[in-house]
Amino acid sequence: MAGTDKSRGTAGIDPTGPAIVLVGPQLGENIGTAARAMLNCGLADLRLVEPRDGWPNEKAVSAASGADLVIEKARVFAGIAEAIADCHHVYAATARPREVVKAVLTPRAAAAEMRAAQARGERVAILFGPERWGLTTDQVSFAGSIIEVPLNPAFASLNLAQAVLIVAYEWRLAADTTPAKFIPTLEQHGGPTELATQDDILKLFEHLERELDESGYLYPPDKRPAMVRNLRSIFLRANLTEPEVRSLRGVVKALVQRRRDLEARGIKPPRRRGS
Amino acid sequence: MAGTDKSRGTAGIDPTGPAIVLVGPQLGENIGTAARAMLNCGLADLRLVEPRDGWPNEKAVSAASGADLVIEKARVFAGIAEAIADCHHVYAATARPREVVKAVLTPRAAAAEMRAAQARGERVAILFGPERWGLTTDQVSFAGSIIEVPLNPAFASLNLAQAVLIVAYEWRLAADTTPAKFIPTLEQHGGPTELATQDDILKLFEHLERELDESGYLYPPDKRPAMVRNLRSIFLRANLTEPEVRSLRGVVKALVQRRRDLEARGIKPPRRRGS
């Protein structure tokens, strides 16, 4: 399968990121999905220890859905020792075996450690076991620490690619600066639109409240301040853009248009008292 | 497929957790893998809007790998409006469309909001689009906010089940109390073993250092304090258990045994000076 442009080149990869070591993976599909999850998170160093169905594997290529770069660069090793030879830190992603005393970390805590190691110029490898049974105790013994994903204890078995995704995602997030929450502005006619100024918004409020006074909605007078406050708060919560303020003024105008028309013909509808 | 015991009953599910709404999902396999990811995280309210291949779907059952509970309880709806009718908050998991002004949250920030809503007794729904093209702008318009997973911008397309997993995982983690890092003790003969006391450890050190003095390793005398400090720090870092301390004392004893044997026969090997 030929790579698309987007999967070529550096493709957002951090070459100093951890190596993902799949030990005895069984299905090519899972290797492919794991590769896709890696590239999703900016990782590309895939190492395979004795893949059951050999390598290269066509099913891995198609399951990678464009993460060809990772598949093409994947290296096969005869054993874990060879696969991790150049690394300074080794983690095993597994449910904790009871026969070994090793630190057990959440993926988030492990990610923080890995980023610190990376910053010191040290290489990290993460071992993942075969789909069916995970890493054996002997295989885990290559690792200094264990990563255990805190899941529903009644149903904790993750598929291989899902485990790779969680660990790689936490690694990515440990250095991510995306704002937790932001409200983007509309992009119209080729450029972003601006949030409305408070002057625009106050004019909208005055327009709306003038029409509501006129129609008798803001009644009785002692309730008026609270009614106005509550209405204004709906719109203030919305972080309106300038075009939205203009739309809302159009809406108010449209809603009162029929009464205006009647008034123009000299007909006055009775004023409502309250709603 | 008959459910296993582990997939029956409540199986660690939080019935007040968010509903996962798959809008127009195409492949049964992906519905199944999404169901598995949901149960991994303790979610079970799966809602399907117009699944392409109909429902029930055998491929979904087998891909769910035991998350039968989620598959069996899944409900099919004719439209998004019907699927989310009972919910108070709706999120759309999607790359942000440029035509709408809506808050965009990371999965982590959204999870915190969802937990807060849950604590107030409010129901949350999260919309996920079809595999190939995601949610349309019209479909996104049902949601109050957008969840965007901060991934490698050069390769950001997540498969459906992976997207469900990340969002469900963050929801789970938002209330998780697993220690970030802990060192479990060995379980031997049916019970956990204890960490060694400092008394055990100091006796090990004294034993080791006595033998090293004897063999001439801790030399010259002005270097001795630093050498001792560095050796001790290796073992202190290891959080030794009581059986491990006993093993190490056995190791020291074994290493000096041959010299002891020679000495017992009146033969004194020459003392080494330094190492």
Verbal overview:
- 2 copies of one chain form a homodimer.
- Chain A is α/β, with parallel strands linked by helices and 275 residues long.
- Chain A folds into 2 domains: 16-173, SPOUT methyltransferase, trefoil knot domain (Alpha/beta knot), CATH 3.40.1280; 186-264, Helicase, Ruva Protein, domain 3 (Orthogonal Bundle).
- Chain A contains 10 helices and 10 strands.
- Chain A has helices at residues 28-40, 58-63, 68-73, 80-83, 107-119, 137-140, 160-173, 198-215, 224-236, 242-264, and strands at 19-23, 46-49, 75-77, 89-93, 103-105, 124-128, 145-147, 181-182, 187-188, 191-192.
- In chain A, strands 3-2-1-6-4-7-5 form a 7-stranded parallel β-sheet. In chain A, strands 9-10 form a two-stranded antiparallel ribbon.
- In chain A, β1 (19-23), α1 (28-40) and β2 form a beta-alpha-beta unit.
- In chain A, α1 (28-40) runs parallel beside α7 (160-173), α5 (107-119) packs across α7 (160-173) and α8 (198-215) packs parallel to α10.
- Residues 1-8 of chain A have low confidence and may be disordered.
- β5 of chain A pairs antiparallel with β8 (181-182) of chain B, so a sheet runs across the interface.
